[in-house]
Amino acid sequence: MADKPTKGLADVVAASTALSDIDGKAGRLFYRGYDIHDLAGRATFEETAHLLQRGKLPDRAELGAYAAELVSGRELGALVSANIAEIAEKQKPMEALRSLVSLSGADDPDKDSITPDANLRKAARLTAQQPLLVARFHAARSGGSVPDPDPSRGIAANFLLQVTGRTPDPREVEIFDECLVLHADHTMNASTFAARVCAATLSDMHSAIVAAIGTLKGPLHGGANEQVMKTLESLTPGNVAQAVRDKLAAGEKIMGFGHRVYKTEDPRATHLRRMSAELAESSGDDTYYRMSKEMEEVVFETKGLYPNVDFFAASVYHYLGIPTDLFTPVFSISRMSGWTAHVIEQHADNRLIRPDSEYIGETDQKWKPIDER
Ligand code: COA
């Protein structure tokens, strides 16, 4: 007889990891022992991905080699290129990414291998290809083309260039790069857990990432940032407080608030709030920032809930010119670094992940032939 389950596996320790750690009471997050407050605005996304996937912050030579590997690995496979237009016509962004990553596995040179070396190479290729997949998907559905990436620039600069079609301001690149750093890894969140469950069957990295993308898509996880923007767009500066109180009184959840682990401010939200304020000022239109601040105050007063990573990310991405339905795909660009690192870690010390369940159905049922049911 199994024990009573913990609903939603809250507080269940499901894996050991050396990748990230959260102190939910103090509101702290660490990547491999580095405080997120020390990395944010200092480490680039490429340095952070190297830290997660390869175990250390790179020195200049290591970063140069990793960046070169990212550039040489970002070319999309033939199967992706042949199908992207039709996928972009029929699928929404996160569905399309799920399909495209699956197709990209077919053209990966290491597709039949899960050795540590093959996993490292695949992790770099997946990290390099994800921004290009999002940009190519967006171009395919809007009938445009994707500007060639600038090999001398990093993932953040090239992504903004390719999605907005304009050369981004250097400060915008720094801010977007910081967003990617903040979203890179987050212990046993739902999509990472999904990736690890898949990897633990000794399935391949692309399969694990497809599971993760399908899991990130939901509005209780990565899909929340898009929902936050939709909420902001549905409100007017004059009706924020009343509308939020009405929603809460009706038992609705306000997207971008609450967290399973943090019992205080999510440390990533601290940085994203600051970035939203800065971009609001430089854009000359602080409407969404002011509305966000008011929402934050009302939700805290009414429910005592703090904003999570998705709340201020919405206005930041909006100010950067990223289309709203690409907010969750942007999350996947960053989290790819963490997911792949978790697959590497899982394969390195594997045991099948197979929990038990509590049976709550009928018992002692008597078999009846079909005509007697
Ligand atoms: N708006 C309003 N109420 C919320 C809320 C929100 N965003 N988040 C949690 N609550 C309330 C719940 O209604 C519940 O209240 P109750 O005890 O009176 O029923 C209580 O807080 C606990 O919430 P619960 O959903 O059980 O917590 P959880 O740990 O299972 O869920 C989240 C965590 C993140 C899924 C949840 O906070 C949520 O749905 N947030 C909105 C979606 C979101 O922003 N997701 C991104 C997460 S980074």
TrEMBL record:
What's the catalysed reaction?
A: oxaloacetate + acetyl-CoA + H2O = citrate + CoA + H(+)
Entry keywords, A to Z: Transferase, Tricarboxylic acid cycle
Q: Which InterPro entries match?
A: 2-MeCitrate/Citrate_synth_II, Citrate_synth-like_lrg_a-sub, Citrate_synth-like_sm_a-sub, Citrate_synthase, Citrate_synthase_AS, Citrate_synthase_bac-typ, Citrate_synthase_sf
Q: Which Pfam families match?
A: Citrate_synt
Q: Where are the transmembrane segments?
A: none
Provide the active-site residues from the annotation. Answer: H259, D310
Q: Which residues form the signal peptide?
A: none
What Gene Ontology cellular-component terms does the record carry?
Answer: cytosol
Which GO biological process annotations does it have? carbohydrate metabolic process; tricarboxylic acid cycle
Similarity annotation: Belongs to the citrate synthase family.
Would you tell me the protein name for this molecule?
A: Citrate synthase
- Give the organism the record lists: Nonomuraea mesophila
